[in-house]
Please model this.
Amino acid sequence: MLPWNTDLYLGFGKARPGEFNGSLFAKFQNETLTAIYQPSEQGFIDMTPDYAESIIHFPGPDPTDPAQSGGSQWDWGNTYVYTPTVSSITKHRNLPNVIHTWGEESTAEGLYAAVSSHQGDYKTWTGEVFRSDDLGDSWTRLANKDEGIGVYRTYDIIDFNNALYVIWNDWLNGPCGISRSTDGGYHWTRLSDFSYLTNCRSRLFVYNNQLLALKVSQDGILALNSSGVVTSHAFPGFQVQSWAYNPFAIDGQDRLYMVTEDDRIVRTTDLDTWQTLVASDRDFITLSYWPDQDAIIAGDRGLAGRIWRLNPDASPVTQPPAPVPSMMVAGGDVVINWDPATSLTYRIYRNSQPEFIGPVQYFHESANGNRWTDAGVAQEVGAIYYQVRSQNTPGDISDVTKTLGKFSFAIEPGM
Model:
């Protein structure tokens, strides 16, 4: 999401199953959402403003362009440029051998791109950094894995304190680290305080003149200040969502907001003490601050995904206690019990799979008291999974303590 004066630009992604039509670039203006362009990508990661040129850059995270004869869709990587004043898109398919363009950074020296590539054979990988001096019309490769920016991938790039920083990754699903360049991206030094301790996908972020990186454990932040000192900050009892590329935002009062894995939006001014602003069953994965509206904008995922506007002046909330449910089968029914708390209602979620990603889309029914019955389902073939959350009068929703399951299988005679 990227606020631009009175407009809010939005990127939507639906890879798996949207392999060839999984991306959409859109604009929210005057309470109306308008589709602008469908990039040929599996998804959408980020947008980078260039205020000097009045344009918006966004990377192509996974090209789906038809391959040329004898080639591959990964022969070239994509970047895109949008000009708001005339509502025009320019697509550049000119990054050689690039599989994923993960991030872009616009600086006075040029436009940088952090990518993961193959080395011409579709099987030998490297992270790379490119720079364009003409807004993406052409690119120069500055560094690859030999410069310490990732044997496998380079995930992000940011300009901070007169230097460039990237997130590097050396093997698939492995932890990441950070490298720094002080000569415009040609040479890089790995920072030991971040090596194999950094989350790969979460974007690097600057707050209070500190470069923030999410820990690989997702339960804290590593902060680098302008003097080169690194401090570690643990989250009090929560983590950040693993697929949140843009989990941070700063409001007009210099307060830092973040989305959590337990479906909350929290806020801090010191990286150590956090307030809960939203406690929900929405799988929030992205945040932004919209100055024109003085609002925090949040996006959640799933079939019931929405865009939300949060008033920064809203008071912190108290999340209700999570119930501890148990389950039994009584006749043909599944019965779920829990210890009730005064003045709380309970939300029952049901799914055929144990993952409740985007929990609200699996909401089944509300209940009072301490007992709920799913009538007649115990004899059905297959599995059913349940979660129970409490909800207080203002509407704040608890976390989940456990997932319950009912399993039954048809038995057929064999030979």
